[in-house]
UniProtKB/TrEMBL annotation:
Domain annotation F-box: ranges: 74-124
Protein name: F-box domain-containing protein
Organism: Lentinus tigrinus ALCF2SS1-6
InterPro entries in alphabetical order: F-box-like_dom_sf (IPR036047), F-box_dom (IPR001810)
SUPFAM superfamilies, alphabetized: F-box domain, RNI-like
Length: 624
C-alpha cells in the first residue's frame, strides 16, 4: 500500500490539480485510513466485486455529467427565477415574518431580478421596523398590497405611512393595537378603501387601565364601515370594535368575527339585528359575556343559509342564548366550536361543565350532537377539550362535520392544603362532559388524560354512555398511569363492597360489561410495573400484574357474551429499572395468554405488547 502524500492547504498542487483529484479515475488508496477493498472482501468473488465497482463508477460519472450540464443558478431566465422566488414566498404562512428577502443576498443578478419584480412586494409584514413597508410601497409599483402589522408599537407609524396608499390596500391586519393607538386606527378607517377585501383589527386588553369620560371604553365605538367606502370587503375580524347594525356592510361579508364587545355599549338585541343581515356569512365567530334581557320576547331563530363554520365563546348564559338563536344548517363539512371561557366565578359552569351552556333541547336544536360517530377527549387539570366528528350530511360522499367543545377546569389546578387529599370528585370533573354524546351513535372514543384522572374517574359511568362503541383508545399524557381501572371498567362486575382510600364503603351491584360491541382496545403510556419511588398515591402499594389482569378481562367479557376483540395494543412503561430485565418475560407470558385467547376466540386480529424505559425520563444519573 502506497503512503499518503500530504499537501498543505496553501500549496499550488492542491488547487491546480483539484479536477484530477476529484476525477473518478484518479481515486486511489489508502482510502483515508480504511483498509483496501481487496482486504475487506476476503471470501467474496473478485469478479462480482469488480462488477459492483464498475456500476458505482458509472453512476458517479452520470451524476457528474448531469451536474456539469445543468445551468448555473445565476444564469437562469428571469421568468424562472421569479417563479422560484414566488414559490419560496408562498411557503411561509401569511402574515408571518418573510424569509424570501434572503435571496437578495445571493448574487447581484438575483438582487436585480427580485428588486424589480412588483409581484414580490405585495405582501408586507411589519415588525418593529418600517423599512420593508416603505420599500414595498415603492417597489410594488401600484399593485394592491397586503399589509400585516405584527408589532403594537408600530401601529401608529404604519397607519400614517399607508394613509396616502389606502386605495391600494387589499388586506389590512393589526394583530395587536395598544390603547394609545386606537385613535390612529379609527382615523385610518375613515378613508375609503375600494380594494380592501380583508380587515383584521385586534385591540388588546391592558394590564392596568383607567376609564374616563374622554375614554369610556377600551375599544372603538361606531366605526363607519359603509358599502360605498368598502365595496369589496368580504372578511371582517375585529375585537373591541363596534360596527353598528345599521351598517349595510354585513350583507356582503362571508367571514365575520365579532370578539369581546361589552354589554353596556352593545346588547343582545343589536347582535340579533346583525345576525339577521348576515345572509352570506360562511364563517361566523362570536365572543361575548352578556346575556339576553329577561323582557326580550323575540324568540325567533335566525337562519344563516350559507353558514359552514360557527365558533362561539363566552359565558354560560351567552352560549345558552346564542345557541337557541342561531339555527345551524347541516352541510357536508360544517364545523361548530363552543368554548366556555368565563367559568371561574360561575358555580354552575364549574360543576356541570359544558352541558350547562347547552339548551335543554340541544339535541334537537343542534342535530350534530345526535350524529357524532367519533370523539376525541383531552382531559387535563387546566382545561378539557372534546373533538367530535359526524359523517357528512345531505348524502355527501366526502367530508365530515366537526364539533369542538372546550372549557377550563379550575378546581383541579389548585393544590390542596398540606396534609389533605383532594376529593375524587375533583379529578373526575374533566371527563364528565362526555355525557353530552349519550344519544349519539359513537363508535370510536379516544381519551388523552393524566395519571391521577385514570385512578379517580368512574370509568364504567363514562363508558355506559357509549353502548355502540367499537374502538376505545386511552393514552396517559404526563406520567404513566395504572392500567387496572380501565381494564376493570370494561369487564362485568359482581356484587361487592369497596373501601376507598378516604375510608368510605361503597356497594357495587352486579353489572354487565359495558361496550359489548367493542372490537379494538388500545392503551398507551400505562404502567407495566409499580413505581418504586412514588409512595404518595393511594394505589402505590398495589401490586401491578398486567398479564393476569388482561387475561381476566378478556375471559370475563367472553363469558358475558361480548363480541370478540379484533385488535389489542398495550404500549406500557416499565417504571422500575430493576425489572427491566424481565420485560421480555412479561411479553412472552402475555403472548401465551393471547395464544390461548385465540383458541378461545377472544382476540382474532392484531395483538401487540411493548414496554419502554420510563425511569430515564424522570431521573438523570450524573456524576456529582
Amino acid at each position: 500500500m502506497s503512503e499518503r502524500t500530504e499537501l498543505p492547504l496553501g500549496s499550488s498542487a492542491h488547487h491546480g490539480d483539484s479536477d484530477a483529484i476529484l476525477h473518478p479515475d484518479a481515486l486511489q488508496g489508502p482510502y483515508y485510513g480504511l483498509k483496501a477493498l481487496i482486504t475487506t472482501t476476503q471470501g467474496t468473488d473478485t469478479l462480482q466485486l469488480l462488477i459492483r465497482v464498475d456500476d458505482v463508477r458509472r453512476d458517479l460519472l452520470s451524476i457528474c455529467a448531469l451536474a456539469n450540464a445543468s445551468a448555473a443558478a445565476n444564469t437562469l431566465p428571469n421568468e424562472i427565477l421569479l417563479s422560484i422566488f414566488l414559490h419560496i414566498q408562498g411557503m411561509v404562512e401569511e402574515g408571518t415574518a418573510p424569509h424570501w428577502p434572503a435571496v437578495l443576498l445571493v448574487c447581484r443578478r438575483w438582487f436585480v431580478v427580485a428588486a424589480t419584480a412588483p409581484q414580490l412586494w405585495r405582501e408586507l409584514v411589519v415588525g418593529k421596523s418600517l423599512n420593508l413597508l416603505r420599500t414595498g410601497i415603492v417597489r410594488s409599483k401600484g399593485l394592491t398590497l397586503r399589509v400585516f402589522a405584527t408589532h403594537r408599537d408600530a401601529v401608529a407609524e404604519v397607519a400614517q405611512t399607508i394613509t396616502p396608499h389606502v386605495h391600494r390596500i387589499q388586506t389590512l391586519s393589526f394583530s395587536s393595537i395598544h390603547q394609545r393607538h386606537k385613535t390612529d386606527v379609527a382615523s385610518l378607517l375613515q378613508h375609503p378603501m375600494p380594494a380592501l377585501e380583508r380587515l383584521n383589527a385586534i385591540i388588546e386588553t391592558p394590564v392596568t387601565y383607567i376609564i374616563t369620560q374622554d375614554d369610556p371604553w377600551l375599544g372603538i365605538d361606531n366605526v363607519p364601515l359603509t358599502r360605498e367606502n368598502f365595496p369589496k370587503l368580504r372578511s371582517l375580524v375585529v375585537e373591541r370594535i363596534i360596527v353598528r347594525p345599521s351598517s349595510a356592510i354585513y350583507q356582503q361579508l362571508s367571514v365575520l368575527h365579532l370578539l369581546t364587545l361589552e354589554g353596556r355599549l352593545f346588547d343582545y338585541c343589536e347582535l340579533r339585528k346583525i345576525l339577521r343581515t348576515c345572509q352570506n356569512v360562511e364563517d361566523l365567530a362570536l365572543e361575548f359575556t352578556f346575556r339576553r334581557d329577561e323582557d326580550d320576547l323575540d324568540r325567533d331563530q335566525v337562519v344563516l343559509p350559507r353558514l359552514r363554520k360557527l365558533h362561539l365563546s363566552g359565558s354560560r348564559v351567552f352560549l345558552h342564548d346564542i345557541l337557541e338563536t342561531i339555527a345551524t344548517p347541516e352541510t357536508a363539512d360544517s364545523e361548530l366550536a363552543i368554548h366556555l371561557s368565563d367559568a371561574k366565578h360561575d358555580y354552575i359552569a364549574r360543576k356541570e361543565g359544558i352541558s350547562s351552556a347547552l339548551p335543554q333541547d340541544y339535541q334537537t336544536l343542534l342535530p350534530i350532537f345526535s350524529a357524532i360517530t367519533e370523539v376525541h377527549a383531552q382531559a387535563r387539570q387546566s382545561e378539557e377539550i372534546l373533538l367530535a366528528y359526524a359523517p357528512a350530511a345531505d348524502g355527501a360522499t366526502h367530508g365530515c362535520r366537526r364539533l369542538s367543545l372546550r372549557m377550563p377546569v379550575y378546581e383541579t389546578s389548585k393544590a390542596p392544603p398540606d396534609g389533605e387529599l383532594r376529593s375524587p370528585d375533583l379529578y373526575s370533573l374533566p371527563l364528565r362532559d362526555l355525557r353530552v354524546f349519550s344519544s349519539a351513535p359513537v363508535e370510536t372514543l379516544r381519551i388523552d388524560t393524566e395519571a391521577e384522572h385514570v385512578h379517580y374517574v368512574h370509568w364504567p359511568a363514562i363508558l355506559e354512555h357509549f353502548p355502540l362503541l367499537r374502538a376505545l383508545s386511552v393514552t396517559v399524557c404526563d406520567y404513566p398511569g395504572d392500567t387496572l381501572p380501565v381494564l376493570y371498567a370494561i369487564r362485568p362486575t359482581s356484587p361487592s363492597l369497596e373501601v376507598t382510600a378516604y375510608g368510605e364503603t361503597l356497594s357495587h351491584p352486579a353489572q354487565r360489561a359495558p361496550c359489548s360491541r367493542l372490537r379494538t382496545l388500545r392503551m398507551s403510556r400505562f404502567r407495566a410495573t409499580r413505581d418504586p419511588f412514588n409512595y404518595s398515591e393511594p394505589w402505590a402499594e398495589r401490586k401491578v400484574e398486567i398479564v393476569p389482569a388482561v387475561a381476566e378481562c378478556l375471559v370475563s367479557r367472553a363469558r358475558d357474551g361480548c363480541e370478540t376483540l379484533e385488535e389489542l395494543v398495550l404500549d406500557l412503561d416499565c417504571m422500575d429499572e430493576r425489572k427491566w430485565g424481565t420485560a421480555e418475560r412479561r411479553r412472552m407470558d402475555l403472548g401465551i395468554v393471547l395464544q390461548d385467547s385465540v383458541r378461545e376466540h377472544l382476540v382474532t386480529g392484531k395483538m401487540e405488547y411493548t414496554e419502554r424505559q420510563s425511569w430515564r425520563e424522570r431521573f438523570t444519573y450524573e456524576a456529582s
